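Anyone able to model this chain together with magnesium ion?
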Amino acid sequence: MRADRSAKAAQKERSKAAAAPAADHRAAIIVCLDLGDDDFEERVAEIVRLVESAGVTRHRVIRGRRSRPDPKFYAGRGKVVEIGHAAAELNAGYVVFNHEMSPAQQRNVEQELNVRTLDRTELILEIFAQRAQTSEGKLQVELARLEHLSTRLVRGWTHLERQRGGFGRTGGPGETQLELDRRYIATKVKTLKGKLRQLQKQRGVQRRARERGDVLSVSIVGYTNAGKSTLFNALTNAKAYEADQLFATLDTTTRRIWLPPANPVVLSDTVGFIRDLPHTLVAAFRATLEETVRADLLLHVVDASSPVRETQAAEVNKVLAEIGADATPQIIVWNKIDATQLAPGMERDQYGRISRVFVSARSAAGLNDLRAAIAEYGQGRNSAKRGPTEQTRSLQPQ
Ligand SMILES: Nc1nc2c(ncn2[C@@H]2O[C@H](COP(=O)(O)OP(=O)(O)OP(=O)(O)O)[C@@H](O)[C@H]2O)c(=O)[nH]1
Ligand SMILES: [Mg+2]
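re: yes, here you go
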């Protein structure tokens, strides 16, 4: 009984501390547990970049090794104590786990440490919320957050929802939807989906107009930070936002370019992919991503200077398969060759088709090869459309 009372008192103390606005919302503890991954250090580097991209300026990484996650806290109890000390020292407003946690694990850590705890999915959702610009992008992020939140609405959790709003900037559904039950969320989800359908219908009309015009549509896809926007800008003289942060681009930007002797080309810069992209996001962004699926050709941009370029390319192909774009022809574009020993130029496969182009979007090296590659693809496609007798070029849509 006595122990019970003191536990209650401690809980009260913790609640008081929670109410105090002392924690620094730009400081975070990052938790990375090695569960036997061979590229653990790259995973650590990536989560650090994600956290920084969310606006955190001070952080400390807590590492650990486990054979499997602890059912209660994900990390072991001793590790949780270590995280708590680090959070206190840094006055951290957030603890970010580079893992997918169950609602119960997340709640347990949060209650134990009394520090807002996010898992990887929530962190990515937060970044997307900060970046969304267009009404469609905002609706899609809101939908993803609501669907994610609906899985977290469990007893004993809602009082913590009040502190939600991730890094204190974007608000988010937690703050406004707090007292709302699942039924309300379901209604809201339905409304959002309706609005999105409306927007997508409009886009369908625009797309059909484009298709009638016999325009070659090319989408730039790739891992986040591979240099897609930089390449897009270099090819179109546009000013799409490029930055050394993850998910700098969220909404698709499209420009028309002319690459003689082919027909006009519509080039789109798209949202970047990342390993373990949350399913709620893939689902919510399906419509935007479907633009990618409908493209005639994908420029798959790979950061050639990254030690994990192969894994990143494989992750991109995984998401492409998930959205049904795995059959769309690709030209692999190895970018950032200025930071490597590679020379600009193009590579063909055994059938003479262009398979890979080496460029530096920053220095413009290799861009003429890339332009030629797109034009060649466009020509091959046109002669394929006109009929087999006119197929003179070696490059055909695969
Ligand atoms: N060295 C070098 N850096 C480059 C090159 N192209 C892009 N970068 C840099 O890579 C970073 C990311 O570039 P972005 O164009 O924003 O990349 P992105 O693929 O659009 O990224 P997200 O929109 O975040 O998915 C920026 O700091 C660029 O300056 C290149 O050819 N060489
Ligand atoms: Mg970009």
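The two ends are 73 Å apart (CA to CA).
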